Amino acid sequence: MCGILAVLGCSDDSQAKRVRVLELSRRLKHRGPDWSGLHQHGDCYLAHQRLAIVDPASGDQPLFNEDKSVVVTVNGEIYNHEELRKKLVNHKFRTGSDCDVIAHLYEEYGEDFVDMLDGIFSFVLLDTRDNSYIVARDAIGVTSLYIGWGLDGSVWISSEMKGLNNDCEHFECFPPGHLYSSKTGVFRRWYNPPWFSEAIPSVPYDPLVLRRAFENAVIKRLMTDVPFGVLLSGGLDSSLVASITARYLAGTKTAKHWGSQLHSFCVGLENSPDLKAAREVAEYLGTVHHEFHFTVQDGIDAIEDVIYHIETYDVTTIRASTPMFLMSRKIKSLGVKMVISGEGSDEIFGGYLYFHKAPNKDEFHHETCRKIKALHQYDCLRANKATSAWGLEARVPFLDKQFINVAMSIDPESKMVSNQFIVVLELLGSLYMLLYFMNQIKKDEGRIEKWILRRAFDDEEHPYLPKHILYRQKEQFSDGVGYSWIDGLKAHADQHVTNKMMRNASNIFPHNTPTTKEAYYYRMIFERFFPQNSARLTVPGGATVACSTAKAVEWDSAWKNNLDPSGRAALGVHLSAYNAETPLSNMPSKVIDNIPRMIEVPRVAIQS
């Protein structure tokens, strides 16, 4: 991911202002270590820190149209740029960069071209002919972007908060799927898919349609002129991304440049669930696998850097960002500049464990819509900034516009978990247990979370993954890297935040008051880096259990006393949401004896 910074209409075209813009732009240099560019037109400044992925030789920014009257600074990837170039036959392109089409599309279509872009992006476009400008952000908010306003009437745009927080009177997150035009001075939503209204869809589930849509989403993200790999936790989502990439890489332009041997990367504490599962998937797919270990102390030592780069005090995001932050540094040291990751699937398919308690398909669908709309504040923010901190780009095929349209048009009844399935498909480490459960459950009636995605890639003739990986239970990233990670964070916070401090929390932090010592600890660090009120307002709040929205907490009254974003907070949900015809107490002892430690329920409790 690149870094963009723009100061527009500041009524100051002095050398001192230019120096200040350059200084602020350098705060984003970690995002784009390959090139720094700045274009000034009167009192408008467009700066860019480039991470070169496509056309590294000539794609430096800012970019221009033929006569340089239109200037663009862009962070992102436009996957359909070759098709768009064919529509612009009367235009001459200066570079081979995928982002070079933006200025020319503006010339042809004005402000209405944004929906033509298939990709992830944040950009500022300045039309020097009338000094007007537009700013736009991609549909879901995969790329990060902030907007601020100065007392002098200036408008500021930055990929990260640290590029503008000290110079703006007010700033906020730039809303995903929106365009801001200087001609109107207001935001306009350019992304208007059918699912956005939250009307209940009714398209019947077709596994092959879903499979093709996701394969296409992965394949288009293989567009790169530099070495890349896949993030592989061993869970369903990242494993499918890796499997599809390995299957189709050989026939791409990328393979001609860098070979068809796929590299995969995983991070975790020693003996964590993710490390073991990822190792198995990598061996199955034949990837060159890189396994990175960290200790709880390594993670704790990195917390301040993580909060500075991620720019949040949200507990879940910090827990998950830290291992990703540490892993990204290792990946970049190997010369890799882009990775493909599995974010977004749980929001689209209701993969979080609390979805087991959705009272009906309407509530299930509404919650998936709420989760997708909020991704830019959580998983997208993590994936973007944890990797960008080290000059690494993360691409997320589950958040492909076309794929989301397909997945969100399916009748949500198909996505809901059946009460005939047992969560312990994670147990299927032996053929005996596999046969036992498959005999107990009808394939189309027993449904684990994200069943429709699993079923779409359950190919007997040309399997994508081993069965027990394809049906591995959901693990949140901060849990899967090792359960002692979260326990260690809580213990560390307990040493630094006293009970007396917690009693005064509502007075010190009246907005989004921290309710745990861990949350208080993160908030103290955040406020030191970003003390402005605008900064604290960029972070969402509200009650949550296992990553739910506040609205979904209402599904079960018991959750109000167990508000924790970890997936383990939903273990009661997890066990009670699946009711087999055979009681747990009547299961063969071999099955019960093999329930993994990650479930964290004593054997005697299971038998009782």
Describe this entry's structure for a reader.
There is one protein chain. Helices cover 37% and strands 14% of the residues. It has 25 helices and 17 strands. Helix 9 (315-333) packs parallel to helix 12. The radius of gyration is 24 Å and the shape is globular. The model is unreliable at 420-445 and 573-608 (pLDDT under 50).
Write the layout of secondary structure elements.
Layout: E1 3-8, H1 15-26, E2 35-41, E3 44-50, E4 63-64, E5 70-78, H2 81-87, H3 101-109, E6 119-127, E7 132-137, E8 146-149, E9 155-158, E10 170-173, E11 178-181, E12 186-189, H4 207-220, E13 228-231, H5 236-248, H6 253-258, E14 263-268, H7 273-285, E15 288-293, H8 296-310, H9 315-333, E16 338-340, H10 345-349, H11 361-373, H12 379-388, E17 393-395, H13 401-407, H14 431-440, H15 451-456, H16 467-470, H17 477-480, H18 483-496, H19 499-503, H20 505-508, H21 517-529, H22 533-537, H23 571-576, H24 589-593, H25 603-607
Parallel strand pairs: 13-14, 13-16, 14-15, 16-17
Antiparallel strand pairs: 1-3, 1-9, 2-3, 4-5, 5-6, 6-7, 7-11, 8-9, 8-10, 11-12
Helix pairs in contact: 4-13, 5-7, 8-9, 8-18, 8-21, 9-12, 18-21
Beta percentage is 5-15%
**Average predicted confidence as pLDDT:** 87
Oligomer: single chain
For the report, how would you describe the main beta sheet? 6 strands, antiparallel
Contiguous helical run count: 25
Q: Which strand order spans the largest sheet, edge to edge or round the barrel?
A: 2-3-1-9-8-10
Helix content: 25-40%
Low-confidence stretches: 420-445, 573-608
Globular, elongated, flat, extended or rod-shaped: what is the shape? Answer: globular
Organism: Gossypium hirsutum (Upland cotton)
Pfam families: Asn_synthase, GATase_7
EC number: 6.3.5.4
InterPro entries: Asn_synth_AEB, Asn_synthase, Asn_Synthetase, AsnB_N, GATase_2_dom, Ntn_hydrolases_N, Rossmann-like_a/b/a_fold
